[in-house]
Amino acid sequence: MTELDVRGLPPPEPFEQIMQVLETLPSAGTLRVLIHREPYPLYEVLYETGYHCLTTALPDGNFSLLIRHVS
Amino acid sequence: MSIAQLSTEQAPPISIPLRFFAAAPLFLLLAALSLATGTGDPFTDTRSPALLAATHCITLGFLTLVMMGAIEQILPVVIGSPMPTHTVRYTLLPMLAGTLALSAGFLLSNPALFNAAWLLLGFAGLVFIGACLFSLARAGAKNPTKIALLLSVISFAATLALGALLARGYAAGLPLDYPKLAASHISLGLGGWVMILIAGVSYQVVPMFQLTPNYPRWVTTGLTPVLFFSLLANIATHWLDAPTLATMSTGVFCAAVLCFALITLRLQTQRRRRVADATLSFFRSAMLSLLCAALLTLAAIYTPLKDYFHILAVVIFVLGFALAVIFGMLYKIVPFLVWFHLFRGGGKKGVPNIKEIIPEVWLWRHLWLHRCTVLAALLASVWPPALWLIIAGLALQGVLLGYALHTGISVYRRTLRRLAT
Questions:
Q1: Domain spanning A2-64: CATH superfamily
Q2: Are β-strands A2-5 and A51-57 bridged in parallel, bridged antiparallel, or unpaired?
Q3: Which of A9, A43, A49 would you mutate first to test chain B, the one with the most B CBs within 10 A?
């Protein structure tokens, strides 16, 4: 699993970094992202580009995203 | 949360919010022109036609237009429920025409213009408020911003209804209690529509763009209902003889406002990245002005200079607080929307850096121009010739903001064309 920590970065840096890593993600791979906000605009772009995202709110106020290709 | 829970078309087309945003700066210029036509001191003659025209250019033409565009953007993104399609078609032009008719009606004391204004603004308001309530009712999400949106839209509806009644009354010479109606209209417009919406949107925008911790839960759940119900109680005292309730409701409302301003300033000291940011500085100026406005309102209760402090509080609230928040939000959100829609449309290659969409140096110039205009407003309360500095400040801010926003839109169009070839 590929991991990416974008906590504390100003918009749109988290978005840019996530999309950059996804370009090199193997088709069966999963990207786990730690982020300080729920990234609403990202969901739509992921959906359009063929990804599935599962978001979990963490107890410390951050969010964990699990992103993978729609099989 | 899975993306399956979200609609595939969450964000509206960029043209919808940008049409509202791009038209709004014109009204700052018109407000300056209206003030320039006036005679006498607006701080002593608060019902002068020039002041009423200028006030409505700022509150209706500038603030309300931007807030309507922002709601079009926020509803789908934060609440997950877009406004019905074509709402913009039936709201933007009637709002523009209605605001122009109303301001001209004040300046020319023309009944036909007042009649045109209340019909146009009433129609635009009905469509917009109906569309908002429909979107809020069908939204699955439950969050404090949704509550704030609902309370502010209800306040907007009541503000418009009272405003339409006043305009109809002026046009037809109806025997109405104009001072009480006007006081309720102003309280609902500024304390409800503007204050509650800004608070609710700040819960999202401040942590997201200024990288602060979230607002405490007791603030996000309790603040906007306290603001709304203390405002309603205060408006009731305009019509009932209840001085104790008037003092209590004013005190509660001002305490809630002070709480919001102080917590926002505190959150900003805890932000993750401590780099200079003009939009953050706009917000800080806004919160300091909000503190002043609340303290002046409280001072009005206990001093013999009640009317003077009230007028000064309203001036600082509108010019110092509301305008600064809107400027800060526009300079943050417009580049983000341009960047996001270009990225979505064509991928990363060829999309300009977000900081190049509106040059940062203009934001800093605008910030200092804005601060000088607020200081001029304070000065004008004791030295009337300073009114000309306010006029110049408003006009220059309208030109600068309009130029900056149209630069952002030009970048979008140019890049889109380049990506398409």
A1: TusA-like domain (3.30.110.40)
A2: unpaired
A3: A43
